[in-house]
Amino acid sequence: MIDKSILPTEMCVREQWICWREENRNGDLTKIPVNPKTGDFASSTDDRTWATLEIALEYVSSARADGIGFVFTSTDPIVGIDLDKCRDPETGRPDPEAKEIVQQLESYTEVSPSGTGYHVLIHGDLPDGRNRRGGVEMYDQSRFFTVTADHVDGTPTSINERQDALEAVHEEFVAEDDTNDKIDATGGRRGDSGQSQTLDLEDEVLLDKARSAGNGEKFDRLWRGNTSGYDSQSEADMALCCLLAFWTGGNRLQMDRLFRQSGLIRGKWDDVHHADGSTYGEKTLERAIAATDDFYEPTTSTVETSVDTAANTDSDTASPLEAGIAEPSSEGGDRVYLEEKNDLLETRIDELEQTIADQRDQIEQLTAERQQLRSIVDQQESDLEDTTEPPSEKDGDSSSLRTRMKRLWRRS
């Protein structure tokens, strides 16, 4: 049972709690986020699926979930550092690297549910660039941490401001130059001009757009973990990643962050599967970006609804135009909008035509089955009539005549 008195107060008072349940997905144990208010799938990008700590604890106490989790958001100052596979669960001893990181961060630290890692919570701003390498991951939004309240002795019981330490740990254990000439430092795809094409759509806005698109039903099905129509889950993983590549402009960090919140996430995502040391997830994202030829390019008005506008930022902040997003004229904006809408309508028409064709095939198949069943029923009714039909008078006379002939034969 979790002792909430051990948890930092600032976490307890926030309505950013979910539950999680461990499930076996294709041989991998995966922690599935659960809405403690409904029992449905929870999302770290949808605050409607979050609850208070008390509600989350009550849900776990009813044995309907395995644990609780805290969701990081852009509105709180908390950064989570996940140290994986660095602690001996038998002795409780950390490996040298993990020990160094925990001591350097000097903030609230607890043992992970598996007993083989640590979760460190601090106040700070996550540095730009990649957010994971090896067994070290850092998150500040759109992600949840499992919470155990298994506090590590010798570490603070409060969440402390540790910006300098965060930057130092990030620089030493996470940051790494990317030599891929097609991918920039933030994970965005580069065009021929070398200018980053990374979009900065908020996760919630991106998901809404993806679900509302012509292939939104397909996206939502994959997002919820439905792999029907694919020969393997790996193919479904690739399909969702290609869709995410389109909507994020090839931003690997955002793609990874979003995929981890989908129903397809499984333990295999972080397993090293390649000789170069890359994980299954990293290679899947890389291949998805390479396979995506076209990327979403919103109009300026779309961007301004998903990020802070220039009017709400410092004067030194680049405007959308300066950031490489051309602000179209009214005529140009209308044309782009109409072209985009036309593409969506054409896609929708193709989908509807295919649906109609499939339904026609089903109707023909059902009609044939109905006719076959009708023939069987008619034959059974006919057989039943033959077995229950009373003998006719003629048959009776014939039977009587045969009986008399037999008697005469015996007498002779």
UniProtKB/TrEMBL annotation:
Pfam families per the UniProt record, alphabetical: NrS1-1_pol-like_HBD
Locations of Basic residues compositional bias? 403-412
Composition bias, Polar residues: 300-318, 370-379
> Which ranges carry the NrS-1 polymerase-like HBD domain?
233-298
The residue stretches assigned to a coiled coil in this entry are: none
Q: Where is the composition biased (Basic and acidic residues)?
A: 180-192
Q: Where is this region: Disordered?
A: 177-197, 300-333, 370-412
**Domain of life from the UniProt record:** Archaea
* Protein name in the entry: NrS-1 polymerase-like HBD domain-containing protein
Q: Which organism is it from?
A: Natronorubrum thiooxidans
